[in-house]
Amino acid sequence: MRCPFCQDPENKVIDSRESHEGSVIRRRRECLQCKRRFTTYERVEEIYPLIVKKDGRRETFDRDKLLAGLQKACEKRPVSADQLEETLVAVERLLQGVGEKEVASSVIGEEVMRRLHALDEVAYVRFASVYRSFRDITEFMEELKDLLSDRTREHKPPRPPDKDG
To answer: Which residues form the signal peptide (predicted)?
Structure first.
């Protein structure tokens, strides 16, 4: 591992910690040449299925691309970096668990939307507006109405039982 500051290959590990349920090891390092410290993350290299896009193109799964989309959707929202990382890890697990060589991009999109819906409704709508490519304001408004009706159902008090039982 080369130092990102001086490019010297010699460094020592100061601290190691597991994170994200043991799937990642965070290492704090110190360069032996310039004495600056930096952090590295170690994870098992996993082979993901190809992602089949809506237009039929096939791409390799790109964690950074998904992270960028999540960050854009969650910009200026109360969603922590840890919550974004948990979402990424969940999508990666989903892809590993499918056991197929190819997976439709819709599988990823729907999983991300499901998780964003639970994290932050504004981020969910932002992501959905790009993912679903709304053609006009009517489609966008329909999504918002669905979101509001979900919220109303969740906050409605239960009906009292009938007198008969």
So the answer is: none
